[in-house]
Write a structure and sequence with these properties.
The complex is a heterodimer of chains A (227) and B (183).
Chain A (H helix, E strand, L loop, with lengths): L2 H6 L3 H11 L4 H13 L1 H15 L12 H12 L7 H4 L1 H19 L10 E6 L6 E7 L4 E8 L7 E7 L6 E6 L3 E5 L2 H4 L6 E7 L15 E4 L1 E2 L1
Antiparallel strand pairs in A: 1-2, 1-9, 2-3, 3-6, 4-5, 4-7, 7-8
Chain B lengths: L2 H13 L3 H23 L2 H18 L10 H22 L6 H8 L14 H10 L4 H13 L3 H8 L3 H20 L1
Helix pairs in contact in B: 1-2, 2-3, 2-4, 3-4, 6-9
The chains are: A alpha+beta (227), B mainly alpha (183).
Chain lengths: 227, 183
Amino acid sequence: MNARLDTELPGGAEAGAAEYSLGLMPKEEIAAFEAELAHDADLQQDVAAWTAYFASFTDMIPAETPPPQVLRRIEGQVFGVEDRRPVWRQVLPYLVGAVAGAAIAWAVLWSGLLETKAPALGADLSEPEGDLVLSTRFAPVTGVLTVTLQAGGAGEGRVLELWLLPEEGAPVSLALLRGAETLVAVPPALVDRLDGARLGVSEEQPGGSPDGMPSGDLRAEGVLAGD
Amino acid sequence: MTAQDEIEALLGRVAGGDRGAFRRLYAAMAPRLYGLALRILRDEILAQDILEEVFVRVWKAAGQYRGALAAPETWLVTITRDAAIARLGEERAAGRMVGLLEITERLYATRPDAEDLAGMREEARALEVCLRELPRARADMLRHAYLYGATYDDLAKGAGTSKHALRAAVRTDLVQVRECLSG
């Protein structure tokens, strides 16, 4: 605390610590106070104690549930695309674009303007003891994973959900498989992780997995690999 | 494990990049912090921005939390309060938010009644008891400052006194409160 304050105002550094914690300290005094705070353990304790007491002003304020999109936005920022919200919801806008994108990509390839070195990837997903069989094919040019149901299906009133299963970290929902063929626009940040990636299919309630994780045992799985 | 210990453990795991812990921390703390931001800003969109800012910061900076100096909940409440007050200052400076007169109204509801004391946490009760030894208007000024970002300028205008005289009085009050809390 500088000398001017000590002489002109009562309370000294102790009152300064309280002003600082309350947010009442005038802006022009904060830098000098923080410089002192940095090497004064007693002052740090004072600030910590005031901070804890003043934080209790908020105890009476009722909690409010934030809308779910806030967590989605936060996860989008901190986890990138790897969050666990069902990707089938995230990718709807992509999906519309992907169909147009597929047409454009086809035209570009046809005219020989674009050569892609990335090979197409594919995986057959089957059920160890059951009749469910799916094939998947990923086209790097379009970023679209095509999932085709070859045999079997979900139980009555249930839906199949496709997952990317990273070696580390949480499964990423890719899509709900409602029909014989599903086009999944793979978010760009996931594309590089597809080669050699494990895919799995779980059976879920109609809206998809309620908790962002596959429910029960996987019904089918397989590994994406080049042709 | 107490709720505080649990939040501290979650913060430690978040610092290590544990996403599941991050989601559990959000589930445990977001309603409290959102309620706080909403009370300060009185605007759902702004309060949601603050919540987003706070949790993104928590993900990036959970390692900065120092358990020795603050309880985990205090840390989270403090960074939320600071972010909301900073935003309120920006909104007011831009003329998009009302000034002190209107907040005086809403502050009234924040002062706990006598019967609330029994249900309070220890720190809250101790502070409230000590604040009751101050002139009521000046105890309210401390709440104003913490919850609505009132400055000495704002408070002096509201009280019709000079900034210097008010600051001297408030600092004297703060020393008295400190003695009361230490007693």
